[in-house]
Design a protein that fits this description.
This protein has 119 residues and is α+β, with helices and mostly antiparallel strands. It is built from two helices and twelve strands, in the order ββββαβββββββαβ.
Length: 119
Amino acid sequence: MGGWYGGIKLSKYRNKKTVVDGITFDSKREAEYYCELKLRLRAKEIVDVKLQPKFVLLEGFQKNGRKYRPLTYIADFLVSYPNGHQEVIDVKGKETEVFRIKQKLFENKYPHLNLVIVK
C-alpha cells in the first residue's frame, strides 16, 4: 500500500500519475485510453466523453440520530455514441473487493448503462 520511496510518494497500486491536455490521470493506462477516446471523437465514432462521472449507488440517510453519507462510484469515463447509447468506462489495473461491491450496486441501480472494465 502506497508509502514513500526515496522522498517520492508512491501511489497505492504503484500507478504513475500522467498528465495529458492539462488533465491529471491516475495511471498511464487511463491517460492512454483517454487519448484513444480523443481519436474516436475526431473520427465521429463517439460524440461525447465525460471525465470522472459520479454515480450515487445508495442515497444518504439518517438512522438513530446518525447521518450516513451517500455511497458513490466515480468511473473514469462516460462515453456517448451517435445513436444515444452510453457506456461507463473504468480503466483498472487491479480490481479490489470494494470495486466489486460497487460494481454490483452500480449494475443493479443503473441497468440501462453498460459498465466496461478496461485492463
